Amino acid sequence: MAMEMLKGLGTTLKEFGKKPTTVSYPEEKRQLPPRFRGRHVLHRYENGLERCVGCFLCAGACPADAIYIEAEENTDEQRVSPGERYARVFDVNLLRCIFCGYCEQACPTGAITLENIYELASTHPEDLVYHKEQLLEPVGSATRGSIVDWTPTPPEATPTPLPGRQGYFDGLEASAAAVGQGDMPAEQAVFLGDDLSGMEHRRRLGEPEEGE
Ligand code: SF4
Ligand code: SF4
């Protein structure tokens, strides 16, 4: 018994005076690595246009089916992105997301990145479905995010609106039009709503609906 106490005391004395490995969170926060994959951010070009062209490639690449997009056509009167379309609705369900970063890698325009935003806890599941309004960086901000740490040559900035401009993924042309998916309808109805009933509905996808 006395031996064990001495051993314990020895360990305490050995560690005494060493710099602690813990931090006083939340007052103090750790510096995270640049490639840390936290919450998504949607980016803009320098000219204020949204990088997202509503191509659905990120949603298609997502293994967790966590991204829901509704795209709409740009018009000359209302141009939101340089492409033919923009994302009118862009939701990311962080309850499903596994933070793999495939969406960031699939995006031909560098519109979506995973950043070091990790304070995502909530007691309300609906709070963890992030909408475009929460994900999109504010007007006047045009950051590139973590893509510059992942990709040596990220998609370049577009100085002026250029409909049909193409991006590259893995050395291949990868605009929505190039892969022939520009007009592809969603494969199935997916509802990511703000309420729990929507989430229940989602869990039932694949099963026959009532009355079918
Ligand atoms: S990080 Fe992975 S799981 Fe999360 S939305 Fe992107 S592709 Fe889907
Ligand atoms: S892949 Fe990029 S451009 Fe296409 S819908 Fe997703 S975020 Fe938008």
- Judged by helices, strands and strand pairing, the structural class is alpha+beta
Separate helix tally: 6
How many strands in all? 7
β content, as a range? 5-15%
User: Which shape, going by the Cα principal axes?
Assistant: elongated
User: What top-tier CATH class fits best?
Assistant: Alpha Beta
Q: Please state the average pLDDT score.
A: 81
Task: Give the SSE order as H and E letters.
Answer: HEHEEHEEHHEEH
Short structural summary:
The chain has 212 residues and is of the alpha+beta class. It contains six helices and seven strands.
What would you say this structure looks like, in words?
The protein has helices at residues 2-15, 57-61, 102-106, 132-135, 147-150, 196-203; strands at 40-42, 67-73, 85-93, 112-114, 129-130, 168-169, 172-173. The chain is of the alpha+beta class and 212 residues long. The protein contains 6 helices and 7 strands. The model is unreliable at 179-191 and 196-207 (pLDDT under 50). A 3-stranded antiparallel beta sheet has the order 2-3-5. A two-stranded antiparallel ribbon has the order 1-4. Strands 6-7 form a two-stranded antiparallel sheet. It has a single domain, classed as Alpha-Beta Plaits (2-Layer Sandwich). The N and C termini lie far apart (72 Å). Bound molecules: iron/sulfur cluster (2 copies).
